[in-house]
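Supplementary Methods. Inverse-folding protocol.

Structures were first reduced to a discrete structure-token string of length 354. This string, shown here, constituted the complete conditioning input.
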């Protein structure tokens, strides 16, 4: 039923006619079918004759019917929400990943709920709490970025583990639901790049030892150097927390140690940016005096000073395909899912030949 609304505008009374939004009952009435039949056409569930479906679709178009999020949930039996767990809400690494997930979900009329590690407990306990929270909120499935879980934690999820995706970590029990990058190839590319420029004296800023993806890239980097007769004992090594502050502190320790080096490899871009900041503060010139290479090829690498050479991990493609696979698991969506994510190197101004 139409309602009349009068407002004073520019000295004149202007009357607006407010059209209430069409409901599924309106669609059913116009199409000459029952509400249940119209609902089956809207949700795509259940059998309806072609003629009836066309009548309902025409009514939907004529009424400009758009089911609300709540209505879609009731029709489909799902919340139409996907949960995302990340270890921390900080830095430039997770933001593009969250943006990619949200964009892909919104294109299918679905939404994202985010939880991140906080509160008491270790990383594993925080991850389990986050997963439970997201499922309790009614999420149909989850995308999880954490290497803190154990196989028994997945088993404890029961049937729910069939509706989760793991980013950047591999579990044998749900192998098809894991989307990972080739970090061994990444470490190898970084070492080969610096060796190709004539470097033989190295420093390495690693991430936390508990992060298996960090260990893969660092071990691969060191293995390549070993093949070229560079001993691990000759390399300045420090472990940090993937943060710019950690990179800055490691760079300070490196300079104060007076350890000779011409090239620095950082296990992520944020630590590399922190190192660049410290080098600039003491007027150590990059790349004319030392070369620096990062990892992940995030936006911070593109806009650092100087622009940072970085191992490119195709996080957008990895994330996009993980979302599409989860949409298949949760809603039966028909997507082609890629699983081959080549690692490459993005050359910028922070590396030069000796």
């Amino acid at each position: 039923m139409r309602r009349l609304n009068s407002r004073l505008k520019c000295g004149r009374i202007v009357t607006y006619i407010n059209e209430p939004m069409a409901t599924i009952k309106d669609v059913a009435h116009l199409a000459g079918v029952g509400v249940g039949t119209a609902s089956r056409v809207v949700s795509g569930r259940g059998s309806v004759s072609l003629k009836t479906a066309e009548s309902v679709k025409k009514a939907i178009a004529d009424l400009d019917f758009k089911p609300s999020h709540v209505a879609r949930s009731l029709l489909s039996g799902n919340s139409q929400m996907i949960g995302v767990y990340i270890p921390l809400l900080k830095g430039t690494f997770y933001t593009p990943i969250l943006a990619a997930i949200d964009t892909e979900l919104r294109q299918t009329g679905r939404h994202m709920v985010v939880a991140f590690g906080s509160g008491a407990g270790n990383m594993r306990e925080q991850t389990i709490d986050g997963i439970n929270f997201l499922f309790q909120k009614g999420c149909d499935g989850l995308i999880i970025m954490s290497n803190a879980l154990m196989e028994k934690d997945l088993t404890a999820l029961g049937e729910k583990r069939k509706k989760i995706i793991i980013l950047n970590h591999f579990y044998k029990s749900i192998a098809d639901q894991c989307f990972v990058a080739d970090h061994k190839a990444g470490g190898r590319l970084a070492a080969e790049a610096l060796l190709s420029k004539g470097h033989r004296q190295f420093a390495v800023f690693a991430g936390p030892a508990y992060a298996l993806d960090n260990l893969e890239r660092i071990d691969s980097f060191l293995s390549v150097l070993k093949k070229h007769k560079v001993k691990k004992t000759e390399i300045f090594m420090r472990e940090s927390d993937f943060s710019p502050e950690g990179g800055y502190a490691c760079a300070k320790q490196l300079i104060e140690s007076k350890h000779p080096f011409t090239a620095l490899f950082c296990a992520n871009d944020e630590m590399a940016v922190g190192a660049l900041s410290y080098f600039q503060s003491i007027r150590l010139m990059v790349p004319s005096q030392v070369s620096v290479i990062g990892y992940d090829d995030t936006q911070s690498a593109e806009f650092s000073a100087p622009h940072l050479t970085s191992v490119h991990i195709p996080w957008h493609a990895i994330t996009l395909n993980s979302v599409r696979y989860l949409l298949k698991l949760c809603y039966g969506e028909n997507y082609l899912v890629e699983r081959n994510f080549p690692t490459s190197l993005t050359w910028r101004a922070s590396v030069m030949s000796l």
